[in-house]
């Protein structure tokens, strides 16, 4: 074997070893951080749930009993986890991760809790890109606007009043930022409509199941 060939083989072997070492380092780093990231995400999810779903209302682990729902026309995203709260084995609430796809600056992600009677327990914005100082009043830390949904249901207000005031509804808009609250009001209304239409199927499903719904909510009648 010529000296040049031996040098080429040696260089190739060193390169392969370096690549293997880098791959092993990356795999080791992922293994060390993956569990920590998953734990952090789980903790953040539980903290968010506690805001819209008081712990005193249930005695189960809603995350452990979650199902996956594919109902984009209702919940605004291809697939949504739905957390199911029970007390003494009886259902008490459903908590949805939903999206208002038509925010002014992009999608607005929400957490919506609805009790067994179809009333809103709480709504919180979990992510958005709305304009600071205008559309960001949907955040609980900026104003109390988002708390106005608590206690509301499909008949309270009437279907035609599930709009912002500018459109003849019961929910105030923000000065200079009507599109943002309009999108959130519509998303919460669709979540309530979903519960009224498909809530029983969601409550009855096995934990971890995936449910698909291809239908769509009806638009509310025009405001008067």
TrEMBL record:
Keywords: Cell inner membrane, Cell membrane, Electron transport, Flavoprotein, FMN, Membrane, Phosphoprotein, Translocase, Transmembrane, Transmembrane helix, Transport. The modification FMN phosphoryl threonine is found at residue 178. Coiled coil: none annotated. GO terms for molecular function: electron transfer activity; FMN binding. GO terms for cellular component: plasma membrane. It comes from the Bacteria. Its cofactor is FMN. The keyword Translocase applies. It is an enzyme of class 7 (translocase). Its EC number is 7.-.-.-. The keyword Lyase does not apply. GO terms for biological process: electron transport chain. It is a single-pass membrane protein. It is found in: Cell inner membrane. Residues 103-195 form the FMN-binding domain. InterPro entries: FMN-bd (IPR007329), Ion_transpt_RnfG/RsxG (IPR010209). Part of a membrane-bound complex that couples electron transfer with translocation of ions across the membrane. The complex is composed of six subunits: RnfA, RnfB, RnfC, RnfD, RnfE and RnfG. Belongs to the RnfG family. NCBIfam families: PRK01908.1 (NF002519), rnfG (TIGR01947). This is Ion-translocating oxidoreductase complex subunit G. It comes from Arenimonas caeni. The gene is rnfG.
């Amino acid at each position: 074997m010529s000296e040049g060939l031996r040098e080429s083989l040696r260089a190739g072997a060193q390169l392969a070893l370096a690549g293997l070492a880098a791959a092993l380092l990356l795999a080791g780093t992922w293994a060390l951080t993956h569990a920590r990231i998953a734990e952090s995400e789980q903790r953040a999810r539980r903290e968010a749930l506690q805001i819209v779903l008081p712990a005193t209302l249930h005695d189960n682990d809603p995350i452990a009993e979650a199902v996956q729902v594919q109902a984009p026309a209702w919940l605004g995203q291809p697939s949504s986890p739905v957390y199911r709260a029970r007390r003494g084995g009886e259902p008490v609430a459903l908590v949805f991760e939903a999206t208002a796809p038509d925010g002014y600056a992009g999608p607005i992600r929400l957490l919506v809790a609805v009790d067994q009677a179809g009333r809103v327990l709480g709504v919180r914005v979990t992510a958005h890109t709305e304009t600071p100082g205008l559309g960001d009043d949907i955040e609980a830390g900026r104003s109390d606007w988002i708390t106005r949904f608590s206690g509301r249901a499909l008949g309270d207000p009437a279907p035609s009043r599930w709009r912002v005031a500018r459109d003849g509804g019961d929910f105030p808009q923000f000065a200079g930022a009507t599109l943002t609250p309009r999108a959130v009001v519509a998303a919460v209304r669709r979540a309530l409509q979903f519960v009224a239409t498909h809530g029983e199927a969601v409550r009855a499903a096995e934990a971890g199941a995936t449910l698909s719904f291809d239908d769509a909510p009806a638009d509310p009648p025009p405001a008067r």
